[in-house]
């Protein structure tokens, strides 16, 4: 039985799933499992026997414990449940936005966003998402920002210091150069480092929050933004920014090569 079928086997039974989850902290005596799992004794004993037969559990003098395979299955089920919890907070958002634009390693870690809020514009307050970004960026001494579109309010709010970094989309710079309506000033920020790279999503991260903007599935640029203040989400956002920053080109170098 392959790994995928083993996971399916466990998840198709709430009793088997609960037993695996109950044993994640460590070995448990049979009587503790009987109290921890909401099922009849016969159903639990049957599940224990079947899980042991498939190499997921082992029986010792101290009780029942996970095998190496069982531990991996338990970890996978935990990740799946975390992702399901992520979707459940705002199912409509994830159905309408394109997660494929994120690097695959970070996409696989989206469950780390944990608790979050989706900030949307309304008919009476269409600028609410923009104001959310501007207010948060203006309130912190430094932050890291990824901007795939030009927005004067964002530019004005961006801190100018050595602890802040800005990544701008190549499309933004190219459009400004072609239009000639706005000059590309390499001295716009005296201390904030600016780099350029192709990017289809927006990101802002500070010590206490992160904001993520994904494009809609039809490619249009949305106003809805994911905002989170959890440590897991902030760490995820910093890792995403670090990955982008390492591959981006300094603005002066980009302009010199045009």
Descriptive tags:
258 residues; alpha+beta; Arc Repressor Mutant, subunit A; 2 domains; eight-stranded mixed β-sheet; two-stranded antiparallel ribbon; 10 strands
Please give the CATH architecture of the largest domain: 2-Layer Sandwich
Relevant CATH superfamily of the largest domain? Endonuclease Chain A
Per CATH, the class of the largest domain reads Alpha Beta
Distance from first to last alpha carbon: 56 Å
Which percent band covers the strand fraction? 15-25%
Low-confidence stretches: none
Mean pLDDT: 91
H/E series, N to C?
HHHHEEHHHEHEHEHEEEEHEH
> For the report, how would you describe the main beta sheet?
8 strands, mixed
The global form is elongated
Going across the biggest sheet, name each strand in turn: 3-9-8-7-4-5-6-10
How many domains, as an integer?
2
Tally of separate helices: 12
Q: How would the blueprint of this fold be written?
A:
Blueprint lengths: L2 H9 L2 H9 L7 H7 L4 H13 L3 E4 L2 E4 L1 H22 L1 H6 L7 H4 L9 E3 L8 H11 L5 E4 L4 H6 L7 E5 H10 L13 E5 L4 E4 L4 E4 L11 E4 L2 H17 L1 E2 H7 L1
Parallel strand pairs: 4-5, 5-6
Antiparallel strand pairs: 1-2, 3-9, 4-7, 6-10, 7-8, 8-9
Helix pairs in contact: 1-5
